[in-house]
Fold this protein.
Amino acid sequence: MIKPLIYKNNKIFILDQKKLPFKEDYIEIKSFNEVLKAIKNMNVRGAPLIGIFAGYGFLIGLKEVLKRKDYKIKLKERIEKIKNTRPTAINLFYIMDRIEKLVNEGIKDFKAYEQEVIKFHKKEISNFEKIADEGRKILFKDVRVLTHCNTGALATGGIGTALGIIFKNKDLIKEVYFTETRPYMQGARLNSYELYKAGIKSKLIFDFEVGIIMQKKMVDVVIVGADRIARNGDTANKTGTFVISLLADYFKIPFYVAAPISTFDLNSDTGEDFIIEERSGEEIKKILNTRIAPCYTEAIYFSFDITPSKFIKGFITEKGILNPPFNYGIKKD
């Protein structure tokens, strides 16, 4: 399986996802500022992987900070800086909250923090395998699946969520359609890469080709990932997900969200409570560093949109498939 992150001998190496699939380049992350930069600049992406990487990133330079008298203040500053890198992706909040609990308890042992992060990482990997097993329940022989954005090993550090279901149940899959996913082309670059390595028949479509392939009855089920899920089931995911859910509803195609329990935000009643990350409009005026719009063009780029729960048939989690009504049965632990 592809390893987007390696932690060994207190060193962190990440596979630079902005260079894939054209170049497989591992970068050593040597400072806390480089951790923040790697998340903000999308060298590391995918909500589950961001959470895992954030946990390991917190460990960089931690031994020195723990020697300070004001270590609690400094560690909480670190936690807030990490949370502010990608405010919509809740997985990094989940691991940071676990780390903050250790800080509040006055823990000064580096190993305790390291063990907490490793424990979280291992549990997430196990959860992704369980999600893949649960996902088999919604599939059937020769099923044709549509997915959006990248949700495999590159986004999770494990087998994946939506793509993990596809990988583990490829004996049932006839074909996979995946969107290019503007502006970073996570589908065109990363899904192509992972699906090819897995030996699964697949076809790339541009983002707004979803309507025509559904109209031509080429899709049986939609499975996507998630970055944050509210108590009522409203789901934040890569921009374009909401439109796909509308089309799936119109054409009566089941629309599922695959995500670990760590993606559920039990402090948010609905999607209206989410902070939706707005990135620089400059990012959508380029594709892979090639300018496609004049520099004077004004642009707006919301990195995520919110899919209302009424368009979601179910959530595929490590604890089973959660069906409506979604306000019930969601528990973190």
Remarks:
- Residues 169 and 241 are 23 Å apart (CA to CA).
- Residues 110-135 form the longest helix (26 residues).
- The first strand starts at residue 5 and ends at 8.
